Amino acid sequence: MVALDLDSQIQLLSRIQFLTRFSSNLVQITGDSGSGKTWLSERYLESWATEPVQSLLLCNSNQQDAQHRSIILRQIVRDAVFNENDLLLQSLDEILQGQSIHALIVIDDAHRLRPALLEELWALVNEAQRRDDWQINVLLFGLRGKLTKCLHKISSGQGLKPLELEISLLNENERDMFIDVLIVSKKMDAASRRVLKQKALSLPLLPGALRGLESQENLSMDDKKSRTPIVLGVLMFFLLVVGTGLVWLTLFPSAPEEPLVRLPAAPGLPLNPLSSSELTDSKELVSDEPPVFDDTRSFSEPPELEGMTVGRTDKNLREVVLPEEVVNAIIDDQKKADTLKKTQGPESISHEEPLKEKNMLSETVSKMTDNLDVPLANQILLAIPNSHYGLQLAALESKREVNEFIKKYDLTDRVFVYETRRKGSPWFMVLFDQYPSVADAREAQTKLSISLKSLSPWPKSFTRIHDEINLLN
């Protein structure tokens, strides 16, 4: 959920705080799907609840009543010994043995609770009302209309009644504010902003529905990304075909048929000796005037150009003579090339350039490698129960910042570091220890050093920690 406190949500949270401050109550907070019940329950625990003992239960349809009792009691009383099949009131009375208690029990998706456990929670609140040293408040966050009938039945004929608060729809100003936060977080251009705002007008005024626009935008971006390789592949194939055609035309041009070129006699070249007339033609070729060829020679038969090669001695073929200076230059260049090849040999081929490139690549990779002083603890943290809490000290964007942070506050071997994703970018969370309940986490917070307290650490549920770690999958 976007970390945005809207006016309607602030009013609801402050009203819950007022109702639970001085007495024991069972309060039902209801709303439609997508109204933000889960976010409000966690937000209340983190920033609004004042009770020293707190318990959070996230209902699952696969859990039994015994598991629900165990989760609640283990957060209220640390290291407690009880029978999870006993009633909540019976177990809590035996655990406390006359001690006082000031506790808050928050249950999300409470519409999944069985009527028997609802009756136990109601009995617990009633008992707290009768005792001066007990104050227990129960907050049930659930879907609208799912618990009303059951709670009315179990409280019928009693003086104390469950309270009900409704999560109202957002107004138009809050909707626009919500969309503005999404736009800022996504860094959209003007056209995308207009499209997003237009889509929001047709949606219900619920945070969940508006947040769905962000998912649609991500899907649209993913779809574009998935199409991009296909387009690039087609473009590359087209360029490859065009490039191949150009190379073919360059290497094998379809030149018009021309007379056979014959070189003058020279050492090492098996060519025919030049005649006096050919020497005259040679002098004409090196003159300042353009070369002139004798086109008056007649052929007994039309020449067949197919299959002709340099050095062929057919008398009926036309000959073009190159000057002797040009031929000698060609021969000298060939001799120099042969001499250089013999002196160097295949062993002299230099491998310095590939080795240089390889070393440069290794240096680049080593510079990019950024190890953590404290290893990532993702798998270790996943093994810790959802009911536990940790103290979050920092959220950083790179391993280098994590190392600097740990060295600055001397936190080596004292913290957990886990990796998550935010808007597709890696983030690293620094977590100080883990505790069975929110109360233990808050108590540990008061005992931190002055330097760590200056970081404003806050209790974070392992339910959320697990969700953030799972974003990597």
Q: Would you mind describing this structure in some detail?
A:
The protein has helices spanning about 5-20, 35-50, 65-75, 90-95, 115-130, 150-155, 170-185, 190-200, 205-250, 275-285, 325-345, 350-370, 380, 400-410, 440-445, 450-455, 460-470; strands at about 25-30, 55-60, 100-110, 135-145, 165, 260, 320, 390-395, 415-420, 425-435, 460. Helices cover about 50% and strands about 15% of the residues. The strands form three sheets. It has a five-stranded parallel sheet with strand order 2-3-4-1-5, with helices on both faces. Strand 6, helix 10 (about 275-285) and strand 7 (about 320) form a beta-alpha-beta unit. With about 475 residues, it is α/β, with parallel strands linked by helices. The relative contact order is 0.09. Mean pLDDT is about 75; it is low at about 255-320 and about 345-370. It has four domains: about 5-170, P-loop containing nucleotide triphosphate hydrolases (Rossmann fold, 3-Layer(aba) Sandwich), CATH 3.40.50.300; about 175-225, no CATH class; about 265-290 and about 320-325, no CATH class; about 380-470, Sporulation related repeat (Alpha-Beta Plaits, 2-Layer Sandwich), CATH 3.30.70.
- Choose one word for the global shape: elongated
For CATH, the homologous superfamily of the largest domain is named as P-loop containing nucleotide triphosphate hydrolases
> Approximately how much beta-strand content do the residues carry?
5-15%
The pLDDT mean sits at: 76
Our count of helices gives 17
Note the run of SSEs as H and E.
HEHEHHEHEHEHHHEHEHHHEHEEHHEH
Tell me the major beta sheet.
Answer: 5 strands, parallel
